[in-house]
Amino acid sequence: MPFSNLPLLVYIYQIWEEEGIEAIETWNVGEQELEGDEESKLSIALDINSTCAKVAFVIISKSMNSPTPQFVPSRLSIYEPIHQIGIWGENFKRNGNPNTSTSLIVEVDNKLENESETTSHEMLAPTNNYEQEASKPIDKIQRRLAQNREAARKSRLRKKAYVQQLENSRLKLIQLEQELQRATQQGLYMGGVLEGSHIGFSGTVNSGIAAFEMEYGRWVDVQHRQICELRTALNAHISDIELRILVKSGMGHYFELFRMKSTVAKADVFYVISGVWKTSAERFFSWIGGFRPSELLKVLVPQLDPLTEQQILEVCNLKQSCQQAEDALSQGLEKLQETVSSTVAGGPVAEVSYIPQVATAMEKLEALVSFVNQADHLRQETLQQMSRILTTRQAARGLLALGEYFHRLRALSTLWVTRPPEPSLP
Amino acid sequence: MDKVTRLASENGLVLFSKSSCCLCYAVKILFQEIGVTPTVHELDQDAEGREMERALMRLGCSAPVPAVFIGGKLVGSTNEVMSLHLSGGLIPLLRPYHSMC
Protein backbone atom coordinates (compact mmCIF):
# COMPACT_ATOMS: atom_id res chain seq x y z
CA MET A 1 0.00 0.00 0.00
CA PRO A 2 1.49 3.33 -1.00
CA PHE A 3 1.06 5.00 2.36
CA SER A 4 2.17 2.41 4.79
CA ASN A 5 5.34 3.23 6.61
CA LEU A 6 5.54 6.75 5.23
CA PRO A 7 5.64 9.64 7.55
CA LEU A 8 2.99 12.18 6.76
CA LEU A 9 2.40 15.78 7.29
CA VAL A 10 -1.07 16.95 7.90
CA TYR A 11 -1.91 20.44 6.90
CA ILE A 12 -4.85 22.08 8.40
CA TYR A 13 -6.32 24.74 6.24
CA GLN A 14 -9.10 27.04 6.68
CA ILE A 15 -11.20 28.51 4.06
CA TRP A 16 -12.31 32.01 4.10
CA GLU A 17 -15.31 32.37 1.93
CA GLU A 18 -14.03 34.99 -0.40
CA GLU A 19 -10.39 35.04 0.38
CA GLY A 20 -9.29 31.60 -0.57
CA ILE A 21 -7.25 29.12 1.32
CA GLU A 22 -4.78 29.81 4.04
CA ALA A 23 -2.84 27.37 6.06
CA ILE A 24 -3.16 27.91 9.75
CA GLU A 25 -1.71 24.81 11.25
CA THR A 26 0.57 22.00 10.33
CA TRP A 27 0.77 18.96 12.41
CA ASN A 28 3.42 16.37 11.93
CA VAL A 29 1.99 12.91 12.22
CA GLY A 30 5.38 11.45 11.54
CA GLU A 31 5.27 9.11 14.52
CA GLN A 32 2.09 7.62 13.31
CA GLU A 33 2.28 5.20 10.47
CA LEU A 34 -0.75 4.39 8.48
CA GLU A 35 -1.82 0.83 8.33
CA GLY A 36 -4.63 -0.98 6.73
CA ASP A 37 -6.08 -1.15 3.36
CA GLU A 38 -7.28 1.52 1.09
CA GLU A 39 -8.51 3.92 3.69
CA SER A 40 -7.02 4.77 6.93
CA LYS A 41 -8.54 6.54 9.78
CA LEU A 42 -6.36 9.13 11.25
CA SER A 43 -7.25 10.49 14.58
CA ILE A 44 -6.26 14.02 15.01
CA ALA A 45 -6.60 16.14 17.96
CA LEU A 46 -6.93 19.70 16.92
CA ASP A 47 -6.23 22.68 18.89
CA ILE A 48 -7.79 25.49 17.04
CA ASN A 49 -8.36 28.63 18.90
CA SER A 50 -8.88 30.73 15.91
CA THR A 51 -12.09 32.56 15.53
CA CYS A 52 -12.50 31.47 11.99
CA ALA A 53 -15.99 30.37 11.31
CA LYS A 54 -15.40 28.37 8.23
CA VAL A 55 -14.52 24.79 7.60
CA ALA A 56 -11.20 23.13 8.06
CA PHE A 57 -9.92 20.44 5.83
CA VAL A 58 -6.94 18.21 5.68
CA ILE A 59 -4.41 17.65 2.98
CA ILE A 60 -2.05 14.76 3.20
CA SER A 61 1.34 15.33 1.76
CA LYS A 62 3.70 12.50 1.00
CA SER A 63 6.82 14.49 1.33
CA MET A 64 8.42 15.68 4.51
CA ASN A 65 10.35 18.21 2.49
CA SER A 66 7.68 20.16 0.77
CA PRO A 67 6.45 22.87 3.03
CA THR A 68 3.40 23.42 0.96
CA PRO A 69 1.63 20.47 -0.47
CA GLN A 70 2.02 19.88 -4.16
CA PHE A 71 -1.10 17.87 -4.38
CA VAL A 72 -4.66 18.84 -4.55
CA PRO A 73 -6.42 16.94 -1.79
CA SER A 74 -7.70 13.72 -3.20
CA ARG A 75 -10.10 12.31 -0.74
CA LEU A 76 -11.06 14.85 1.58
CA SER A 77 -12.28 14.59 4.88
CA ILE A 78 -13.46 17.42 6.48
CA TYR A 79 -15.98 17.28 8.60
CA GLU A 80 -16.60 19.64 11.39
CA PRO A 81 -17.04 23.35 11.17
CA ILE A 82 -14.41 25.09 13.13
CA HIS A 83 -16.78 26.86 15.38
CA GLN A 84 -17.82 23.53 16.76
CA ILE A 85 -14.24 22.46 17.15
CA GLY A 86 -13.54 25.74 18.81
CA ILE A 87 -16.03 24.86 21.47
CA TRP A 88 -14.10 21.85 22.56
CA GLY A 89 -10.84 23.62 21.90
CA GLU A 90 -9.94 23.58 25.57
CA ASN A 91 -10.19 19.81 25.64
CA PHE A 92 -7.37 19.20 23.24
CA LYS A 93 -3.74 19.05 24.06
CA ARG A 94 -1.27 20.94 21.91
CA ASN A 95 1.10 18.03 21.37
CA GLY A 96 -1.46 16.16 19.43
CA ASN A 97 -2.11 13.24 21.72
CA PRO A 98 -4.66 11.18 19.87
CA ASN A 99 -5.86 9.49 22.96
CA THR A 100 -7.82 12.35 24.39
CA SER A 101 -11.43 11.61 24.95
CA THR A 102 -12.93 13.47 22.07
CA SER A 103 -11.06 13.30 18.84
CA LEU A 104 -11.90 14.27 15.37
CA ILE A 105 -11.91 11.26 13.13
CA VAL A 106 -10.61 12.08 9.75
CA GLU A 107 -10.90 9.57 6.98
CA VAL A 108 -8.18 9.60 4.43
CA ASP A 109 -8.09 7.77 1.17
CA ASN A 110 -4.53 7.08 0.20
CA LYS A 111 -4.92 6.78 -3.52
CA LEU A 112 -2.81 9.37 -5.20
CA GLU A 113 -3.68 8.39 -8.73
CA ASN A 114 -5.91 11.34 -9.28
CA GLU A 115 -3.70 14.07 -8.11
CA SER A 116 -5.26 16.54 -10.42
CA GLU A 117 -8.78 15.70 -9.43
CA THR A 118 -10.67 18.58 -7.99
CA THR A 119 -11.74 18.31 -4.44
CA SER A 120 -14.80 16.35 -3.74
CA HIS A 121 -15.09 16.88 -0.09
CA GLU A 122 -18.26 17.16 1.80
CA MET A 123 -18.58 20.46 3.49
CA LEU A 124 -20.99 21.23 6.18
CA ALA A 125 -22.72 24.51 5.91
CA PRO A 126 -20.74 27.01 7.84
CA THR A 127 -22.54 29.34 10.12
CA ASN A 128 -21.43 32.50 11.86
CA ASN A 129 -23.08 31.66 15.07
CA TYR A 130 -20.61 31.48 17.89
CA GLU A 131 -23.10 31.35 20.65
CA GLN A 132 -23.48 27.62 20.84
CA GLU A 133 -24.13 25.74 24.02
CA ALA A 134 -21.05 24.58 25.83
CA SER A 135 -20.91 21.13 24.34
CA LYS A 136 -22.97 18.87 22.15
CA PRO A 137 -23.97 15.46 23.39
CA ILE A 138 -21.57 12.68 22.42
CA ASP A 139 -24.05 10.67 20.39
CA LYS A 140 -24.75 13.64 18.12
CA ILE A 141 -21.06 13.89 17.45
CA GLN A 142 -20.90 10.18 16.72
CA ARG A 143 -23.84 10.48 14.38
CA ARG A 144 -22.21 13.35 12.59
CA LEU A 145 -19.01 11.36 12.22
CA ALA A 146 -20.97 8.41 10.87
CA GLN A 147 -22.67 10.70 8.37
CA ASN A 148 -19.32 12.01 7.31
CA ARG A 149 -18.01 8.53 6.78
CA GLU A 150 -21.06 7.70 4.75
CA ALA A 151 -20.64 10.80 2.64
CA ALA A 152 -17.00 9.93 2.06
CA ARG A 153 -17.98 6.44 1.05
CA LYS A 154 -20.53 7.71 -1.44
CA SER A 155 -17.98 10.08 -2.80
CA ARG A 156 -15.57 7.23 -3.38
CA LEU A 157 -18.23 5.21 -5.18
CA ARG A 158 -19.06 8.14 -7.41
CA LYS A 159 -15.42 8.55 -8.23
CA LYS A 160 -15.10 4.87 -9.03
CA ALA A 161 -18.06 5.03 -11.40
CA TYR A 162 -16.63 8.09 -13.07
CA VAL A 163 -13.23 6.47 -13.52
CA GLN A 164 -14.88 3.41 -15.02
CA GLN A 165 -16.69 5.65 -17.47
CA LEU A 166 -13.43 7.36 -18.38
CA GLU A 167 -11.77 3.98 -18.90
CA ASN A 168 -14.52 2.87 -21.24
CA SER A 169 -14.32 6.11 -23.17
CA ARG A 170 -10.57 5.75 -23.42
CA LEU A 171 -10.88 2.25 -24.85
CA LYS A 172 -13.50 3.47 -27.28
CA LEU A 173 -11.19 6.25 -28.35
CA ILE A 174 -8.29 3.85 -28.94
CA GLN A 175 -10.56 1.62 -30.94
CA LEU A 176 -11.83 4.52 -33.03
CA GLU A 177 -8.30 5.71 -33.72
CA GLN A 178 -7.34 2.20 -34.76
CA GLU A 179 -10.39 2.02 -36.97
CA LEU A 180 -9.54 5.33 -38.56
CA GLN A 181 -5.97 4.28 -39.23
CA ARG A 182 -7.12 1.04 -40.79
CA ALA A 183 -9.68 2.81 -42.93
CA THR A 184 -7.07 5.30 -44.13
CA GLN A 185 -4.55 2.59 -44.97
CA GLN A 186 -7.10 0.44 -46.68
CA GLY A 187 -8.42 3.46 -48.50
CA LEU A 188 -4.96 4.03 -49.99
CA TYR A 189 -4.48 0.37 -50.88
CA MET A 190 -7.86 -0.17 -52.46
CA GLY A 191 -7.48 2.98 -54.52
CA GLY A 192 -10.89 4.13 -53.49
CA VAL A 193 -12.66 1.34 -55.41
CA LEU A 194 -13.80 -0.68 -52.44
CA GLU A 195 -13.71 2.12 -49.90
CA GLY A 196 -17.45 2.51 -49.87
CA SER A 197 -18.05 -1.11 -48.95
CA HIS A 198 -15.30 -1.02 -46.34
CA ILE A 199 -16.85 1.88 -44.53
CA GLY A 200 -20.18 0.13 -44.62
CA PHE A 201 -18.60 -3.00 -43.19
CA SER A 202 -16.80 -1.19 -40.42
CA GLY A 203 -20.19 -0.24 -39.04
CA THR A 204 -20.87 -3.82 -37.99
CA VAL A 205 -17.27 -4.34 -36.86
CA ASN A 206 -17.58 -1.36 -34.59
CA SER A 207 -20.52 -2.76 -32.65
CA GLY A 208 -18.83 -6.18 -32.15
CA ILE A 209 -15.71 -4.51 -30.84
CA ALA A 210 -17.59 -1.97 -28.72
CA ALA A 211 -19.60 -4.79 -27.15
CA PHE A 212 -16.44 -6.75 -26.43
CA GLU A 213 -14.75 -3.77 -24.81
CA MET A 214 -17.69 -3.20 -22.50
CA GLU A 215 -17.78 -6.87 -21.54
CA TYR A 216 -14.04 -7.04 -21.10
CA GLY A 217 -14.08 -4.04 -18.77
CA ARG A 218 -16.62 -5.87 -16.63
CA TRP A 219 -14.61 -9.10 -16.92
CA VAL A 220 -11.54 -7.38 -15.43
CA ASP A 221 -13.63 -6.03 -12.53
CA VAL A 222 -15.05 -9.46 -11.76
CA GLN A 223 -11.56 -10.94 -12.05
CA HIS A 224 -10.29 -8.50 -9.46
CA ARG A 225 -13.13 -9.34 -7.12
CA GLN A 226 -12.48 -13.06 -7.52
CA ILE A 227 -8.82 -12.64 -6.69
CA CYS A 228 -9.69 -10.82 -3.49
CA GLU A 229 -12.17 -13.54 -2.57
CA LEU A 230 -9.58 -16.23 -3.19
CA ARG A 231 -7.01 -14.43 -1.10
CA THR A 232 -9.43 -14.02 1.79
CA ALA A 233 -10.58 -17.63 1.52
CA LEU A 234 -7.05 -19.03 1.51
CA ASN A 235 -6.03 -16.94 4.50
CA ALA A 236 -9.17 -17.93 6.36
CA HIS A 237 -8.48 -21.65 5.80
CA ILE A 238 -11.96 -22.48 4.57
CA SER A 239 -12.89 -26.07 3.72
CA ASP A 240 -11.85 -27.74 0.50
CA ILE A 241 -15.45 -28.05 -0.62
CA GLU A 242 -15.99 -24.31 -0.42
CA LEU A 243 -12.61 -23.69 -2.03
CA ARG A 244 -13.56 -25.95 -4.91
CA ILE A 245 -16.51 -23.68 -5.67
CA LEU A 246 -14.21 -20.67 -5.89
CA VAL A 247 -11.77 -22.59 -8.09
CA LYS A 248 -14.54 -23.66 -10.45
CA SER A 249 -15.86 -20.14 -10.82
CA GLY A 250 -12.34 -18.83 -11.35
CA MET A 251 -11.72 -21.32 -14.13
CA GLY A 252 -15.13 -20.63 -15.62
CA HIS A 253 -14.29 -16.96 -15.68
CA TYR A 254 -11.27 -17.59 -17.92
CA PHE A 255 -13.35 -19.82 -20.19
CA GLU A 256 -15.85 -16.99 -20.45
CA LEU A 257 -13.06 -14.72 -21.74
CA PHE A 258 -12.12 -17.25 -24.42
CA ARG A 259 -15.77 -17.37 -25.53
CA MET A 260 -15.88 -13.58 -25.73
CA LYS A 261 -12.67 -13.53 -27.75
CA SER A 262 -13.99 -16.14 -30.14
CA THR A 263 -17.02 -13.97 -30.87
CA VAL A 264 -15.09 -10.77 -31.45
CA ALA A 265 -12.47 -12.65 -33.53
CA LYS A 266 -15.21 -13.40 -36.03
CA ALA A 267 -15.97 -9.68 -36.23
CA ASP A 268 -12.34 -8.57 -36.48
CA VAL A 269 -9.52 -11.02 -35.93
CA PHE A 270 -6.86 -8.31 -36.30
CA TYR A 271 -8.37 -6.52 -33.34
CA VAL A 272 -7.88 -9.59 -31.15
CA ILE A 273 -4.38 -10.32 -32.41
CA SER A 274 -3.24 -6.72 -32.04
CA GLY A 275 -3.92 -6.96 -28.32
CA VAL A 276 -5.08 -3.36 -28.31
CA TRP A 277 -7.83 -4.38 -25.90
CA LYS A 278 -5.20 -5.20 -23.28
CA THR A 279 -2.89 -2.91 -21.35
CA SER A 280 0.55 -2.21 -22.78
CA ALA A 281 2.55 -4.44 -20.41
CA GLU A 282 0.22 -7.36 -21.12
CA ARG A 283 0.57 -6.70 -24.83
CA PHE A 284 4.34 -6.96 -24.48
CA PHE A 285 3.93 -10.64 -23.61
CA SER A 286 1.22 -11.29 -26.16
CA TRP A 287 1.27 -14.45 -28.27
CA ILE A 288 -1.44 -14.89 -30.88
CA GLY A 289 -3.87 -12.62 -29.09
CA GLY A 290 -3.26 -13.64 -25.48
CA PHE A 291 -0.86 -15.02 -22.93
CA ARG A 292 1.57 -17.80 -23.83
CA PRO A 293 0.55 -21.02 -21.98
CA SER A 294 4.13 -22.09 -21.26
CA GLU A 295 4.83 -18.64 -19.76
CA LEU A 296 1.80 -19.13 -17.57
CA LEU A 297 3.26 -22.36 -16.24
CA LYS A 298 6.55 -20.62 -15.49
CA VAL A 299 4.68 -18.02 -13.44
CA LEU A 300 2.51 -20.55 -11.62
CA VAL A 301 4.79 -23.42 -10.68
CA PRO A 302 7.06 -21.59 -8.19
CA GLN A 303 3.92 -20.48 -6.33
CA LEU A 304 2.66 -24.01 -5.92
CA ASP A 305 5.39 -25.55 -3.78
CA PRO A 306 5.40 -28.14 -2.40
CA LEU A 307 4.49 -30.45 -5.25
CA THR A 308 4.64 -34.24 -5.05
CA GLU A 309 7.06 -36.16 -7.27
CA GLN A 310 4.17 -37.29 -9.42
CA GLN A 311 2.92 -33.74 -9.79
CA ILE A 312 6.36 -32.44 -10.71
CA LEU A 313 6.59 -35.06 -13.43
CA GLU A 314 3.16 -34.29 -14.81
CA VAL A 315 3.77 -30.54 -14.80
CA CYS A 316 7.07 -31.14 -16.57
CA ASN A 317 5.34 -33.16 -19.27
CA LEU A 318 2.62 -30.53 -19.60
CA LYS A 319 5.23 -27.82 -20.00
CA GLN A 320 6.92 -29.77 -22.76
CA SER A 321 3.68 -30.58 -24.63
CA CYS A 322 2.67 -26.93 -24.33
CA GLN A 323 5.96 -25.78 -25.76
CA GLN A 324 5.63 -28.18 -28.68
CA ALA A 325 2.06 -27.15 -29.41
CA GLU A 326 3.03 -23.47 -29.25
CA ASP A 327 5.91 -24.03 -31.65
CA ALA A 328 3.60 -25.83 -34.05
CA LEU A 329 1.07 -22.98 -34.01
CA SER A 330 3.78 -20.32 -34.28
CA GLN A 331 5.28 -21.98 -37.31
CA GLY A 332 1.86 -22.48 -38.86
CA LEU A 333 1.24 -18.77 -38.41
CA GLU A 334 4.56 -17.91 -40.03
CA LYS A 335 3.58 -20.08 -42.97
CA LEU A 336 0.33 -18.14 -43.19
CA GLN A 337 2.22 -14.85 -43.24
CA GLU A 338 4.45 -16.12 -46.06
CA THR A 339 1.42 -17.29 -48.02
CA VAL A 340 -0.48 -14.01 -47.66
CA SER A 341 2.65 -12.01 -48.42
CA SER A 342 3.40 -13.89 -51.62
CA THR A 343 -0.24 -13.71 -52.66
CA VAL A 344 -0.38 -9.95 -52.16
CA ALA A 345 2.99 -9.39 -53.84
CA GLY A 346 2.24 -11.77 -56.68
CA GLY A 347 0.89 -10.85 -60.04
CA PRO A 348 2.20 -8.19 -62.40
CA VAL A 349 2.84 -4.91 -60.62
CA ALA A 350 2.79 -3.02 -63.85
CA GLU A 351 -0.93 -3.48 -64.01
CA VAL A 352 -3.51 -1.97 -61.71
CA SER A 353 -5.80 -4.99 -61.40
CA TYR A 354 -4.86 -6.59 -58.11
CA ILE A 355 -8.37 -7.77 -57.37
CA PRO A 356 -7.72 -11.51 -57.96
CA GLN A 357 -4.82 -11.51 -55.50
CA VAL A 358 -6.88 -9.65 -52.97
CA ALA A 359 -9.63 -12.26 -53.14
CA THR A 360 -7.13 -15.08 -52.53
CA ALA A 361 -5.45 -13.14 -49.76
CA MET A 362 -8.82 -12.57 -48.08
CA GLU A 363 -9.46 -16.32 -48.17
CA LYS A 364 -6.13 -16.99 -46.52
CA LEU A 365 -6.74 -14.42 -43.83
CA GLU A 366 -9.83 -16.35 -42.78
CA ALA A 367 -7.41 -18.96 -41.49
CA LEU A 368 -6.16 -16.39 -38.97
CA VAL A 369 -9.41 -16.80 -37.06
CA SER A 370 -8.69 -20.53 -36.69
CA PHE A 371 -5.24 -19.79 -35.34
CA VAL A 372 -6.58 -17.40 -32.71
CA ASN A 373 -9.18 -19.99 -31.72
CA GLN A 374 -6.50 -22.69 -31.51
CA ALA A 375 -4.31 -20.47 -29.35
CA ASP A 376 -7.21 -19.85 -26.96
CA HIS A 377 -8.00 -23.57 -26.98
CA LEU A 378 -4.42 -24.23 -25.94
CA ARG A 379 -4.76 -21.74 -23.07
CA GLN A 380 -7.97 -23.38 -21.94
CA GLU A 381 -6.48 -26.89 -22.12
CA THR A 382 -3.43 -25.79 -20.14
CA LEU A 383 -5.63 -24.40 -17.37
CA GLN A 384 -7.74 -27.55 -17.33
CA GLN A 385 -4.75 -29.86 -17.18
CA MET A 386 -3.27 -27.87 -14.32
CA SER A 387 -6.50 -28.07 -12.37
CA ARG A 388 -6.47 -31.83 -12.92
CA ILE A 389 -2.88 -32.23 -11.70
CA LEU A 390 -3.23 -29.99 -8.65
CA THR A 391 -5.14 -30.38 -5.41
CA THR A 392 -8.01 -27.98 -4.77
CA ARG A 393 -5.92 -25.85 -2.45
CA GLN A 394 -3.02 -25.74 -4.92
CA ALA A 395 -5.40 -24.84 -7.74
CA ALA A 396 -6.78 -21.99 -5.65
CA ARG A 397 -3.27 -20.69 -4.98
CA GLY A 398 -2.51 -21.07 -8.67
CA LEU A 399 -5.55 -19.04 -9.71
CA LEU A 400 -4.67 -16.39 -7.16
CA ALA A 401 -1.08 -16.24 -8.41
CA LEU A 402 -2.22 -16.01 -12.03
CA GLY A 403 -4.82 -13.34 -11.35
CA GLU A 404 -2.43 -11.33 -9.24
CA TYR A 405 0.23 -11.56 -11.96
CA PHE A 406 -2.05 -10.07 -14.60
CA HIS A 407 -3.30 -7.48 -12.13
CA ARG A 408 0.28 -6.37 -11.51
CA LEU A 409 0.98 -6.18 -15.24
CA ARG A 410 -2.03 -3.92 -15.61
CA ALA A 411 -0.86 -1.77 -12.70
CA LEU A 412 2.59 -1.58 -14.29
CA SER A 413 1.01 -0.32 -17.51
CA THR A 414 -0.85 2.41 -15.66
CA LEU A 415 2.29 3.47 -13.80
CA TRP A 416 4.23 3.54 -17.01
CA VAL A 417 1.68 5.71 -18.75
CA THR A 418 1.53 8.17 -15.87
CA ARG A 419 5.24 8.33 -15.11
CA PRO A 420 6.62 11.88 -14.90
CA PRO A 421 8.18 13.21 -18.09
CA GLU A 422 11.94 13.03 -18.28
CA PRO A 423 13.62 16.31 -17.39
CA SER A 424 14.94 18.06 -20.46
CA LEU A 425 18.70 18.21 -20.69
CA PRO A 426 20.30 21.62 -20.03
CA MET B 1 -16.18 -43.01 -47.61
CA ASP B 2 -14.38 -46.20 -48.59
CA LYS B 3 -11.28 -44.47 -49.85
CA VAL B 4 -10.90 -42.49 -46.65
CA THR B 5 -11.43 -45.52 -44.41
CA ARG B 6 -9.08 -47.58 -46.55
CA LEU B 7 -6.33 -44.98 -46.53
CA ALA B 8 -6.85 -44.41 -42.82
CA SER B 9 -6.17 -48.04 -41.94
CA GLU B 10 -3.17 -48.44 -44.21
CA ASN B 11 -0.82 -46.85 -41.72
CA GLY B 12 -0.59 -46.25 -37.99
CA LEU B 13 -0.64 -42.45 -38.22
CA VAL B 14 -2.55 -40.91 -41.10
CA LEU B 15 -3.14 -37.20 -41.71
CA PHE B 16 -5.59 -35.85 -44.27
CA SER B 17 -4.46 -32.35 -45.23
CA LYS B 18 -4.41 -29.68 -47.92
CA SER B 19 -1.13 -28.23 -49.13
CA SER B 20 -2.53 -24.69 -48.81
CA CYS B 21 -3.82 -25.19 -45.27
CA CYS B 22 -1.58 -23.59 -42.65
CA LEU B 23 -3.31 -25.23 -39.70
CA CYS B 24 -2.52 -28.60 -41.34
CA TYR B 25 1.06 -27.41 -41.58
CA ALA B 26 1.01 -26.68 -37.83
CA VAL B 27 -0.17 -30.24 -37.10
CA LYS B 28 2.60 -31.61 -39.30
CA ILE B 29 5.12 -29.56 -37.30
CA LEU B 30 3.70 -30.92 -34.06
CA PHE B 31 4.20 -34.50 -35.17
CA GLN B 32 7.69 -33.58 -36.27
CA GLU B 33 8.39 -32.11 -32.80
CA ILE B 34 7.32 -35.28 -31.02
CA GLY B 35 9.33 -37.37 -33.46
CA VAL B 36 6.72 -39.19 -35.52
CA THR B 37 6.13 -39.14 -39.26
CA PRO B 38 2.51 -39.31 -40.40
CA THR B 39 1.36 -40.61 -43.78
CA VAL B 40 -0.04 -37.47 -45.37
CA HIS B 41 -2.76 -37.33 -48.02
CA GLU B 42 -3.19 -33.91 -49.60
CA LEU B 43 -6.82 -33.65 -50.64
CA ASP B 44 -6.20 -30.71 -52.98
CA GLN B 45 -3.83 -32.92 -54.93
CA ASP B 46 -6.18 -35.87 -55.11
CA ALA B 47 -8.68 -36.26 -57.93
CA GLU B 48 -11.32 -37.48 -55.49
CA GLY B 49 -10.44 -34.76 -52.98
CA ARG B 50 -13.93 -33.23 -52.84
CA GLU B 51 -15.57 -36.58 -52.19
CA MET B 52 -13.03 -37.35 -49.46
CA GLU B 53 -13.72 -34.00 -47.81
CA ARG B 54 -17.40 -34.84 -47.65
CA ALA B 55 -16.61 -38.28 -46.27
CA LEU B 56 -14.49 -36.78 -43.51
CA MET B 57 -17.25 -34.36 -42.55
CA ARG B 58 -19.69 -37.28 -42.39
CA LEU B 59 -17.33 -39.11 -40.05
CA GLY B 60 -17.78 -36.24 -37.63
CA CYS B 61 -14.84 -33.92 -38.26
CA SER B 62 -15.55 -30.28 -37.48
CA ALA B 63 -13.39 -29.33 -40.44
CA PRO B 64 -12.38 -31.73 -43.21
CA VAL B 65 -8.72 -30.90 -42.75
CA PRO B 66 -6.62 -31.52 -40.79
CA ALA B 67 -8.00 -34.94 -39.92
CA VAL B 68 -5.87 -37.34 -37.90
CA PHE B 69 -6.33 -41.11 -37.72
CA ILE B 70 -4.34 -43.33 -35.37
CA GLY B 71 -4.57 -47.10 -35.85
CA GLY B 72 -7.39 -46.57 -38.32
CA LYS B 73 -9.51 -44.72 -35.76
CA LEU B 74 -10.44 -41.07 -36.09
CA VAL B 75 -8.79 -38.90 -33.44
CA GLY B 76 -10.16 -35.64 -34.78
CA SER B 77 -8.98 -32.23 -35.96
CA THR B 78 -6.52 -29.72 -34.49
CA ASN B 79 -8.53 -29.24 -31.28
CA GLU B 80 -8.64 -32.92 -30.45
CA VAL B 81 -4.99 -33.52 -31.31
CA MET B 82 -3.88 -30.59 -29.13
CA SER B 83 -6.06 -31.66 -26.20
CA LEU B 84 -4.80 -35.21 -26.48
CA HIS B 85 -1.20 -34.06 -26.54
CA LEU B 86 -1.56 -31.75 -23.54
CA SER B 87 -3.25 -34.45 -21.52
CA GLY B 88 -0.30 -36.70 -22.26
CA GLY B 89 -2.34 -39.17 -24.26
CA LEU B 90 -0.99 -38.63 -27.76
CA ILE B 91 2.42 -40.25 -27.43
CA PRO B 92 1.19 -43.43 -25.71
CA LEU B 93 -1.43 -43.79 -28.43
CA LEU B 94 1.26 -43.56 -31.08
CA ARG B 95 3.68 -45.92 -29.44
CA PRO B 96 2.46 -49.20 -30.99
CA TYR B 97 2.68 -47.65 -34.44
CA HIS B 98 5.94 -45.85 -33.97
CA SER B 99 7.94 -48.29 -36.02
CA MET B 100 5.34 -48.43 -38.77
CA CYS B 101 5.22 -44.66 -39.33
From TrEMBL, chain B:
Keyword hit for Cell wall biogenesis/degradation: no
Entry GO terms, CC: cytoplasm
Keywords tagged on the record: Cytoplasm, Redox-active center
Subcellular localization: Cytoplasm
Domain of life: Eukaryota
Pfam families assigned to the protein according to its UniProt record, in alphabetical order: Glutaredoxin
UniProt-listed CDD domains: GRX_GRXh_1_2_like
The keyword Zinc is assigned to this record: no
Location, primary (coarse class): cytoplasm
Gene3D superfamilies: Glutaredoxin
Residue span(s) of domain Glutaredoxin: 14-75
Family annotation (PANTHER family): GLUTAREDOXIN
Family the entry assigns: Belongs to the glutaredoxin family. CC-type subfamily.
NCBIfam families xref list: GlrX-like_plant (TIGR02189)
Protein name per the record: Glutaredoxin domain-containing protein
